[in-house]
């Protein structure tokens, strides 16, 4: 029989039960606010440059496109993740909801406003993780889950950034929370709210559609009878988000397709999202037509209960996995699952994005920092799978089904598409799965049989402190040839130790094995905390170094100049007064025409080191001069790109005012 726990929808009261906890919360919030106010305002990668430009264009011009070339008569050139739009403007490929929601923050605080928006979203995401955990399980589970998500996951990397991931996640979690409420009374209104929230999240990041599909399927299948009104409400509420995507893409690209990332070809075709489109259609079918009675819903969840023991269930699952390895397509899919969830180092070389490199031990690095899979950020996740067998046999709570569907939807989709987030320190595309994993892991620890927290708190605190200190120490050894292994190996080993301890606990259910599994669980939580905090520190250091470079560049860049560059730091620092072009993405003739127009207007034209090499090969009508003399602050910083001056032939010599700008 499916057990539905009694739900208390008063998370704020449950969260703040003691004065000591409230004092701690105030201290943490103060530290959080300080970090947000002092975070470096520099793009991590070129993606964030476009997000910042989207916010600026909407705040200043009320436009979904922005001007890349600040010279009348010069058309914008294509760039990575953006495409030429009418009026000499550039259309970012990303969903335009980010521009709308971030515009007030940009108008009030500039780029700092985008960081503040994400910081607020981080607080909301932590609170909603607690609220969902409280609704699905208990206050104890909810507190642990909120703590795991807040610190011991990839979330700390995205609290003080320009990425849209944290804001999208907060809105997605609001939709998941409303879905749970829709299953427990007032279905139509809460269903409508869930649809509106998930539709809004999709305008920030398209993958929120996965959460909508998971929520709708759960509501109609796992909850059973009397949820049709709530499901219809969800579908109706989701429509405005889809319509916004259709209209905004039509304005930007001329393509009325909610899933389009460009004007033609590639992601403009629904065939690229065939699996996702099938899921959406299936969810709509389930939402409208199928009305599973409560008994059928229970039967679906309890179907594997024909096995007599958890051991038999485990054997069946392992056997199914081994059978899947015998089929080539499923074998490739399982490899992708392993890459995203277990160890990114096993990714095939052909799937490496530009900027990702392997060290001598096979560890993949981004910006010199090891890139982590999901388990390497959250090594306690095996606790969730410890409870999966119990859930499949009908011993779980109904709300767990929603969490499993959300977690599985993101893992399966990104494994099928083989997307891994490119230049990031962790598996950022799986950030929406982190709250679900944290809640399910907390439930798994509860199922493990660990006594009240008052009896286990000492082990928990000691283990987390010890492993966090170790991980933070080893992450500081960036110059060591084994630095990559020192970062990714401890979380993996902790996750492996926890898995072995859980298997032993299931095979030999005794007090000693329970204690061993509890210690392994606390160790994995500590490893996750060290990993999450370490990533946040590395992210801040990288952004600070980028900020230093950008400030030096901005101080030296002449107003109105054109820069040929592939460096997001220079792009971001250019701001509103400087034009930038990514030369490798356009026809040389188009780039040459832009260079000529700027030179004819008496503007400076520069190229960074990589672009200068490209210009020498392709722009034969111009001469690329020697590097401009660098000031003391440049020569002492080898990380700063030396800028080159591209000058016209002698017949069209550059004006002395441009040459003297430095």
Strand order of the largest sheet: 7-6-8-10-9
Shape: globular
- Helical proportion? 55-70%
Main sheet characteristics: 5 strands, mixed
Percent strand equals 5-15%
> From the structure provided, what is the oligomeric state, counting identical versus distinct chains?
single chain
Indicate the radius of gyration in whole angstroms. Answer: 26 Å
Work out the number of β strands: 10
Total helical segments: 26
Poorly predicted regions: 1-17, 629-642, 648-657
Structure description:
α4 (97-109) packs across α5, α14 (328-341) packs across α17 (400-417) and α17 (400-417) crosses α18 (434-448). The model is unreliable at 1-17, 629-642 and 648-657 (pLDDT under 50). This protein is mainly alpha-helical and 662 residues long. It has helices at 11-15, 19-38, 46-61, 97-109, 111-136, 139-151, 165-182, 187-202, 208-222, 228-253, 274-288, 294-301, 310-324, 328-341, 374-377, 382-392, 400-417, 434-448, 453-475, 483-507, 511-556, 568-574, 588-600, 609-618, 632-635, 656-659, and strands at residues 82-85, 89-92, 356-358, 364-366, 369-370, 562-564, 579-581, 605-607, 623-627, 644-647. It is built from 26 helices and 10 strands. β6 (562-564), α22 (568-574) and β7 (579-581) form a beta-alpha-beta unit. The strands form 3 sheets. Strands 7-6-8-10-9 form a 5-stranded mixed beta sheet, sandwiched between helices. It has a 3-stranded antiparallel beta sheet with strand order 3-4-5. A two-stranded antiparallel ribbon has the order 1-2. The radius of gyration is 26 Å and the shape is globular.
């Amino acid at each position: 029989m499916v057990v539905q726990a009694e739900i208390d929808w008063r998370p704020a009261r449950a969260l703040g039960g003691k004065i000591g906890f409230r004092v701690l919360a105030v201290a943490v919030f103060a530290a959080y606010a300080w970090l947000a106010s002092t975070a470096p305002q520099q793009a991590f990668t070129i993606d964030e440059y476009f997000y910042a430009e989207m916010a600026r264009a909407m705040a200043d011009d009320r436009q979904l496109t922005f001007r890349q070339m600040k010279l009348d008569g010069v058309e914008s050139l294509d760039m990575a993740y953006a495409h030429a739009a009418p009026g000499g403007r550039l259309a970012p490929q990303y969903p335009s909801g980010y521009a709308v929601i971030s515009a007030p923050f940009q108008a009030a605080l500039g780029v700092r406003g985008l960081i503040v928006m994400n910081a607020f979203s981080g607080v909301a995401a932590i609170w909603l993780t607690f609220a969902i955990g409280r609704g699905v399980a208990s206050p104890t589970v909810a507190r642990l889950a909120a703590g795991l998500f807040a610190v011991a996951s990839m979330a700390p990397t995205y609290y003080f950034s320009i990425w849209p991931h944290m804001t999208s996640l907060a809105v997605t979690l609001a939709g998941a929370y409303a879905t749970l409420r829709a299953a427990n009374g007032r279905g139509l209104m809460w269903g409508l709210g869930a649809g509106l929230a998930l539709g809004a999240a999709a305008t920030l990041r398209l993958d929120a559609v996965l959460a909508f599909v998971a929520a709708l399927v759960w509501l109609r299948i796992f909850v059973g009878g009397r949820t049709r009104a709530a499901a219809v409400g969800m579908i109706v509420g989701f429509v405005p988000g889809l319509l916004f995507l259709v209209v905004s893409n039509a304005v930007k690209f001329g393509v009325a397709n909610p899933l389009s990332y460009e004007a033609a070809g590639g992601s403009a075709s629904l065939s690229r999202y065939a699996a996702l489109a099938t899921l959406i259609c299936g969810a709509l079918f389930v939402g409208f037509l199928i009305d599973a009675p409560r008994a059928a819903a229970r039967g679906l969840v309890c179907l594997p209960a024909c096995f007599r023991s958890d051991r038999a269930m485990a054997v069946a699952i392992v056997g199914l996995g081994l059978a899947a390895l015998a089929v080539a397509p499923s074998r490739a899919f399982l490899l992708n699952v392993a890459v995203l969830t277990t160890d990114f180092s096993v990714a095939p070389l052909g799937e490496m994005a530009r900027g990702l490199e392997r060290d001598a031990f096979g560890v993949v690095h981004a910006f010199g920092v090891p890139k982590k899979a999901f388990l390497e950020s959250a090594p306690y996740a095996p606790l969730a799978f410890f409870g999966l067998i119990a859930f499949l046999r009908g011993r779980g709570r109904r709300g767990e089904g929603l969490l499993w569907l959300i977690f599985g939807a993101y893992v399966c989709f990104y494994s099928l598409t083989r997307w891994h987030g490119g230049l990031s320190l962790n598996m950022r595309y799986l950030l929406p799965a982190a709250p679900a994993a944290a809640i399910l892991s907390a439930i798994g620890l509860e199922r493990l049989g660990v006594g009240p927290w008052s009896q286990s708190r000492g082990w928990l605190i000691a283990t987390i402190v010890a492993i966090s200190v170790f991980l933070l120490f080893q992450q500081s050894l960036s110059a060591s040839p084994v630095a990559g292994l020192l970062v990714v190996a401890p979380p993996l080993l902790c996750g492996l130790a926890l898995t072995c301890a859980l298997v032993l606990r299931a095979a030999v259910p005794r007090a000693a094995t329970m204690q061993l599994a509890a210690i392994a669980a606390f160790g994995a939580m500590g490893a996750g905390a060290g990993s999450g905090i370490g990533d946040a520190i590395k992210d801040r250091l990288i952004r600070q170094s980028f900020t230093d470079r950008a400030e030096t560049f901005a101080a030296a860049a002449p107003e109105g100049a054109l820069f040929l560059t592939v460096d997001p730091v220079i792009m971001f620092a250019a701001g509103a007064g400087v034009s930038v072009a990514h030369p490798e993405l356009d026809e040389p003739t188009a780039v040459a025409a832009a260079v000529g127009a700027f030179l004819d207007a008496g503007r400076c034209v520069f190229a960074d080191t990589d672009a200068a090499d490209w210009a020498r090969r392709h722009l034969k009508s111009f001469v690329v001069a020697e590097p401009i003399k660098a000031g003391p602050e440049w020569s002492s910083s080898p990380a700063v790109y030396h800028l080159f001056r591209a000058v016209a032939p002698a017949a069209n010599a550059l004006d002395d005012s441009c040459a003297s700008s430095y």
